[in-house]
Structures are given as structure tokens and as C-alpha cells.
Amino acid sequence: MTEPRHFIEIADWTSGQLQRLLDLAGRVRDGAFADRPLEGRTVAMIFQKPSTRTRVSTEVGVAQLGGHALMISELDSQMGRGESVSDTARVLSRYVDAILIRTFGHERVVEFARHATVPVVNGLTDLVHPCQVMADLMTIVQEFGPDLSRMRVVWIGDGNNMANSWLNAARRFGFALRLACPPGYEPDPRILDRAPASRVELARDPERAAEGAHVVTTDVWASMGAEGERKERAEAFARYQVDEPLMARAHPEAIFLHCLPAHRGEEVAPEVIDGPRSRIFREAENRLHIIKAILLELIR
Ligand code: CP
Ligand code: NVA
Question: Does pTM top 0.85 for this prediction?
Fold first, then answer.
């Protein structure tokens, strides 16, 4: 098995490599690696969209491992003046030991990784958000134990970057995944096509989709970059709120996850996101453990 060089999509890694990552993140959470294994190492973080969790968890995680994280925003670098992805990737690779990028088009991260000679981590694109879904899987393991293949997960709402990453995760971990998306807002067809048909179901009706689910999860109706479509999206998604009646259809032990930031009263009712089944803050904490594990796996 070749060692992974980058972390761009969940499905780029084998099931074994992803399982090892989850195990490592669990050990990180339990206090391993206090000996500062990234001493003297630097991680660059490029953000072309806003971020709270991804930025702070990476910066803090690298510091806790003994290294240094460097924030680069588009505006105050030459990227904002049109310097090419390939030149930027080649130059930064000569200074830093890994690069995390959050951007719009997924192909930008792929191109960055093609030209970089250090590991590249995808901190979110319009297509996928792999670090987040790995943190979500970690949260599920904490709640239900290590056998993810027996889980039933339901995704309610937009077939966006999070939904696409859930599809990739179902492909590698073998859990059952139902996605209830309004017409016209389905996940990426190429990612859907590669998902195991026996474990993945595209549904329209959110209540029926939620039946028996161990995990109910959703996301904002208008992702970063789609804010201009807020009004028509609010109409299309009106039936797709995770509320208490919907949660009542799920498994009696079901938990609620949301990558955050959330819009209470839109995709999720306040009683659910702030209620006893919600695990959103443990989920957010796990972003720290998982990014540390990803960087430990990639930086050699
Ligand atoms: N969930 C997530 O990625 O949050 P940020 O946009 O705050 O990084
Ligand atoms: N789907 C959301 C996730 C934010 C963390 C977005 O892309 O804006």
C-alpha cells in the first residue's frame, strides 16, 4: 500500500488508511504526541473563503504539535494579483512542510497538489469538505463504537460539498447513507455514481429518509459562494428542516450533527441543534484532533 501524499478527497485514501487516521485521531485526543513531533515544521494555510473552525483548529493543532502555522489570505499575497497556482505551489513548497487550502473550484486544489512538492490538505472546496466528514466519523465512533459499517446516516438538504464527502465516506466505510435533497440540489453525479448502490439511496422525502437513522445531519441551504441564491433556495428547501418530528422518526439513540456555522430556524430547528441529541460541539472539537492526525500522517 503506497503512503498517501495529500488529503484532497476521502476516497483518495484506502479504507485501511482512513481507519488508521481515525485511530490516530483518537490517540491524539487522548493525549498522545505531547513530545512536539512537528518541532521546526511549518504549515501554510491559504484561505480564499472565510473560516473559523478550519483555520483555528489547524493553527492551534500545529502549535500543539510543536510547529508553526502561517495564514496566507488571497488579498495580501500575490495570488490576489493573479500569480499562478503552479508557481505559488512550487514556491511555497520550498518554504513550508505542508499546505492547507480552502478555495472555490476543486480543480484549483488538485492543480496545487500536482505542482506542490509537499503535502496538500483540502480545507474545503465547492465539491468536498473531507476534514469535516472525518471529524464527523470520529464523533460517530465516540457515540456508537468503532464499527461504522453498521451505521445508518441520513443527510437532509443540499447535495453540497458535505453531502459529497458523506458519499465518499460511505464508499470507504460501508455504512448506509440516505440523502434527502430537493430536486435540482442533488450531490455531484460523478461522486454519486461511484458510491455503492447497495448502501446509498437518494430520497426526496426527508421524513421517510430519517426512519431508523443513527445519525441525522444537515448543512446550510446556501453554502459559501451561493449566497446570491438565498431566496430561491429558502423556497426549495422549506420542507427540508431537521425538526423534532423528523428526529422522532430516527433511531431512539440518534444523534444530530452539523458542520457549522448553522442557521437556526432554517435547516435546523433550535430545539434540535441545542437539544439533547445534538453533538455539534464535540464534532467541532474533533476538527482539532483530526487535522493533527492528518498532518502527522502526511508530514514526514
Ligand atoms: N465547519 C467548518 O469548516 O467551519 P469553518 O468554515 O468555520 O472552518
Ligand atoms: N457547505 C458549507 C460548509 C461550511 C463549513 C459551505 O461550503 O459553505
Answer: yes
